[in-house]
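Practice problem 4.
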């Protein structure tokens, strides 16, 4: 590319970022809406060429709360959904939508006993009753495992948990949080959450930006040094879009997360207590793939690897590591050769 072409391209990109509609328009994988209820939107991904995928494997993608379901489909080359279609699987995604003050009474039970079981059954029914492979990212993987433990009757063939916290003793900053919580008996956070009805979306977005402070700090330099590299800017823009779409947490859900997982580390002990009920992770019998990121500052790899100790009833528990950030291990530039490759092999072996 000549100097004149480079300067022209840089100028166009600068205009698109500052005054235009952006570097690259969103290009989601085509999908069909199968179920549309509040916090229960189930979609089946399809090939762009319209050719039906007659796959034996129905893969249900399970996002976490406080993150949009687009985590599985950021852009064409950062899309686990498209990858699954490429290798002959039938991917689906459950989307919880926006979380508002009116949803403050929603808790873990709403996902474990209602939203996810129904999504599994509907996904299976759409594939003529075939069993479903669950793939969850972050707390989505935790919810998938808890759902399988609570409902062993569900047609779940396998579970993959990517960057999922399974031992809060190994989570960065948790010992310090517990020390502070001891001063108030852990009641201060619970009181604030109940008063606000949950964690607002704006606070979730701020929190995520704090964990990626280096990205925020170096962003101006990154843009300036990549003005003539459209692909790099498009990837940056997809992450910005993802962060801007982050929803919040319902009050009751976060209260349970705070008291039972963060303070109590129930999941690290293998039994999560919700009121008078106990859910034992040892009741998961399906094969499990765990993927942790050594560079993940949100869920350290050790917190994911703990699942190899906890999931004693699973037919198989495999642990792998992948480079990148918390989102990077799922949809970063190396995900295809790491996490996606592990998943492809795992699904083939458990079919």
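Answer key:
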């Amino acid at each position: 590319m000549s100097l004149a072409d480079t300067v022209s391209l840089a100028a166009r990109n600068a205009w698109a970022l500052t005054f235009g509609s952006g570097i690259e328009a969103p290009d989601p994988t085509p999908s069909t809406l199968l179920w549309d209820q509040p916090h229960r939107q189930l979609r089946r991904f399809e090939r762009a060429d319209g050719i039906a995928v007659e796959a034996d494997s129905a893969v249900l993608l399970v996002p976490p709360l406080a993150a949009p379901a687009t985590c599985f489909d950021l852009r064409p080359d950062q899309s686990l959904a498209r990858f699954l279609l490429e290798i002959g699987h039938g991917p689906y995604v459950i989307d919880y939508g926006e979380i508002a003050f009116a949803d403050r009474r929603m808790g873990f039970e709403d996902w474990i006993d209602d939203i996810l079981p129904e999504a599994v059954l509907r996904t299976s029914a759409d594939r003529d009753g075939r069993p479903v492979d669950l793939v969850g990212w972050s707390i989505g993987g935790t919810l998938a495992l808890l759902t399988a433990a609570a409902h062993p009757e569900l047609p779940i063939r396998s579970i993959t948990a990517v960057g999922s916290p399974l031992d809060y003793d190994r989570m960065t900053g948790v010992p310090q949080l517990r020390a502070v919580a001891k001063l108030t008996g852990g009641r201060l956070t619970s009181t604030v959450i109940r008063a606000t009805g949950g964690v607002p979306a704006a606070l979730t977005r701020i929190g995520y930006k704090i964990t990626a402070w280096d990205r925020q700090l170096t962003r101006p330099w990154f843009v300036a040094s990549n003005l003539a590299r459209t692909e790099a800017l498009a990837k940056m823009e997809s992450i910005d879009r993802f962060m801007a779409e982050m929803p919040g947490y319902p009050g009751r859900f976060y209260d349970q997360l705070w008291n039972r997982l963060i303070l109590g580390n129930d999941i690290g002990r293998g039994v999560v207590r919700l009121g008078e009920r106990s859910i034992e992770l040892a009741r998961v019998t399906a094969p499990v793939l765990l993927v942790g990121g050594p560079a993940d500052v949100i869920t350290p790899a050790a917190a994911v690897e703990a699942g190899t100790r906890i999931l004693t009833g699973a037919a198989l528990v495999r642990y792998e590591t992948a480079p990148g950030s918390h989102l990077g291990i799922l949809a970063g530039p190396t995900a295809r050769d790491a996490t996606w490759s592990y998943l492809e092999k795992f699904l083939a072996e458990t079919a």
